[in-house]
Phosphoenolpyruvate-protein phosphotransferase
Amino acid sequence: MGVTLAKIRQNLVLHGTVANKGIAFGKLSFVKRADIGHEKKEIKNTKAECARFEKARLHAITQLGALYDASLEKLGEQNAVVFQIHQMMLEDPDYVSSIKDVITKEHSNAEYAVTVVAQKFEKQFLEMDNDYMRGRAADIVDISRRINEILMMHDGILNNKGISYNHEGSVVLAADDLVPSETVQLDQKAVAGIVTSKGSNRSHTAIFARTMGIPTIVCVGDSLTEDLEGHFVIVDGNSGRIYVDPDNETIERFSEIKKTDDVQNSHLEEFRGKPTLTRSGNKINLFANSGSLADLELIKASDAEGIGLFRSEYIFMQASDYPTEEEQYEIYKKVLETMGDKKVIIRTLDIGADKTAEYFMLKQEQNPAMGLRAVRLCLANRALFKTQLRALYRASAFGNLSIMIPMITSVDEVIETKQIIREIKRELDEQELQYKDDVEFGIMIETPAAAIISDELAQHVDFFSIGTNDLTQFTLAVDRQNADLENYLNPYHHAVVKLIENTIINGHLAGIWVGICGELASDEKFLGKLIQLGVDEMSVVPSSVLSLRAKIATLG
Ligand code: PEP
Ligand code: MG
């Protein structure tokens, strides 16, 4: 029996979601937290209890200011900013009044009120159907815990705040979840890896882990049990596996992989802040793809030279109703301001097919990928298109904006869109609203039709960006959503490559630049071909920027 259990233990492999790549070795150490008492106590003087809460809240805001300053140096502005966000959350009237309401109506102590309100808000965030907002649940827990710790400190009950864990040797930290202020306190030298049973790879904790370069796996589930404390593990942040008490053969295998990774990664840092040049000195613009404001931190940390594809439909997918011109304007402005003088290519709405939002009430279609989507939908619904284009043009005054139109199949669509843009400019002039007159205007080449007539299209636009995901789907007649057809969805297919080549040649003949923003741009195996074809810009997943810049330096 004992032998069997030992054997099972030795073969135990846990699975989770990769939040940061890399290999880590160490002993599992579960995070221990100070016990925060939050049982309900009856309070007679609720006014005094509200004042007690208020004092702790203000103390928390000051503490967060100090934490922000300390993190600035360690993690940079883009990561430290979460503590400013926490300060704002602590100022949120809804959050503050909900706590005071519980104190007053239930005659309860502040600790209890903070805890129940935190649970309510956490639940609301976790139920949202977008990763970014779900990630905010950890922030609510974090600020509420901070207030409770301070309340207990003020009462002299707690003086040792924060988390503790076993620091001996190399540690793989384990927890149900970590909150940002816990992650930032970690000793980077001691913590080799992080594994959590819950969490999200979009949370600030995951972003911090990435910035700090700690291999991290989240969402491991219930199999990450505390009886594994002290067991030796290998965290494989490439596959999302955690090997518990691995055998010698597995240890050797991962030691070799780690050695190769370490050499490669230290080498990659040399490319940070440098331009992307081929071996013969040709400049390539190496940009990153983005879906929302939440990705901006990652993009800044990735050292991308701009945003080559901002998928604006994500804004619509995250909303419960059509985002107004003002709402969109604020988002685009924020993106542009954050990126400074770097180019930001915002793609107009590409809703339809797999990307939908209920309030659009799109008709059921037999083949939605080939249906009323993207630019077709926008041209059929002028008000929708005009609202977005107005927001984009107004935001253009705040940075280096380019606008890109998806799913183009004809010259007429381009001409019609440009006509709408002229109308918008006239309106903005009349209203004396600022915008940049020379916003670059480009289109995606992601249908075979567009690639074939790219010579004609090039006469009407400033740039092309090749969307190889859809170009592959439509050229090969293979549904990109159908996992059973994976082997058929071959972006290296000669037909796809020929269309890419045709587009680049026609773009260059017309004197415009040609980029690529589909997944194929991040594929190192195809990089040599792209350089050979003379692509000018590549927009890739943020985590690939440095490795691609290093690879490009060896090519062409
Ligand atoms: C593409 O089709 O290659 C592309 C970048 O657009 P999306 O993946 O958003 O359809
Ligand atoms: Mg596409």
